[in-house]
Specification:
By secondary structure, this protein is mainly α. The protein has one domain: Arc Repressor Mutant, subunit A (Orthogonal Bundle). The chain contains six helices and no strands. Helix 4 crosses helix 6 and helix 5 packs across helix 6. The chain is globular.
């Protein structure tokens, strides 16, 4: 769900991922963790799916106002994982993809730029804008 904008898209991505995993399981070498290998396949499948839909250009624009809240994240520890995922799902597709790849999957901005055919600077700025926007939304939820 963190990559997809809705449940139907998430189900499509998950199904495509399972098919790829099933077809490539013989290629898995026990040199790394199985979990890491599976996560890479799912992430790459999500990227491929979004590219096919030509939706990766839906980024947060430079002109969008993001109000910086001076509040500390005091109430954020009371939020549930589902609350946070719901807010992440509200991000524009491109920004959500950059956020997930960097924050959740551990890709570098250089790797993200190569995968998405964007500049490294675009990856960094989209991550920072997504992070600020999420913090604003999460602060409102926790207030």
């Amino acid at each position: 769900m963190s990559y997809a904008g809705d449940r139907t898209m998430a189900q499509d991505i998950l199904q495509e991922s399972f098919i790829k995993i099933f077809n490539k399981i013989k290629e898995f070498k026990s040199e790394g963790s199985l979990e890491g290998w599976l996560r890479r396949i799912v992430a790459n499948t999500a990227i491929d799916h979004l590219r096919q839909k030509q939706r990766t250009q839906d980024y947060i624009s430079d002109r969008e106002e993001i109000k910086e809240e001076s509040k500390e994240a005091d109430g954020l520890e009371n939020l549930q994982t589902q609350d946070i995922l719901k807010q992440v799902s509200k991000l524009p597709d491109g920004a959500r993809l950059v956020f997930n790849l960097y924050a959740l999957e551990g890709y570098t901005h250089k790797e993200i730029a190569q995968k998405l055919n964007i500049t490294e600077g675009t990856s960094k700025s989209q991550f920072n804008r997504a992070r600020k926007l999420l913090m604003t939304w999460l602060n409102k939820l926790s207030a």
